[in-house]
Specification:
24% strand; Nucleotidyltransferase, domain 5; 5-stranded mixed sheet; single chain; globular; 5 strands; alpha/beta
């Protein structure tokens, strides 16, 4: 079973796919497009290539836990994903993942330009690892 995490953005979307065991984050990439059709096409290619069976979509709640415009956009995109791929989509609280991803890349010595190219993929990997940890600790699978 492979799970794919998606850090959906306006122009850059991070993707991370688990290994076959569903225990570790494996493949990561950033899809650079603002066109939803092009993004869905690439996500479909990744789903097919890796045999993905479940999608985890970043749910950018406000820091106080309320739903704002970005979270509403994620809810709408979750429906697009379900319609396009007929796979279960779980919304996953992604507060602070992008901040954490920037900090990880900065600590690794990546300058701002290099961080911009990979931060979304790192954020998706952090989301995926959080979700996989949740599943291992007895959360719903």
């Amino acid at each position: 079973m492979r799970i794919m995490a998606i850090d959906y953005g306006d122009a850059h979307t991070g993707v991370a796919v688990s290994d076959l065991t569903g225990l570790l984050a494996g493949h990561t990439e950033t899809v650079h497009t603002w066109r939803k059709e092009e993004l869905l096409r690439r996500l479909g290619e990744i789903i097919g290539e890796y045999g993905v069976t479940e999608l985890v979509l970043g749910y950018p709640l406000n820091m106080d836990g309320t739903v704002g415009p970005r979270a509403e956009k994620a809810e709408a995109f979750a429906k697009d994903l379900e319609a396009a791929f007929s796979l279960p989509v779980r919304l996953w609280d992604e507060r602070r993942t992008t901040v954490d991803a920037h900090n990880i890349l900065q600590a690794a010595g990546k300058n701002a330009k290099k961080r911009k190219k990979t931060v979304d993929a790192v954020a998706a990997a952090l989301m995926l690892e959080g979700y996989l940890d949740f599943r291992r600790s007895g959360g719903p699978s």
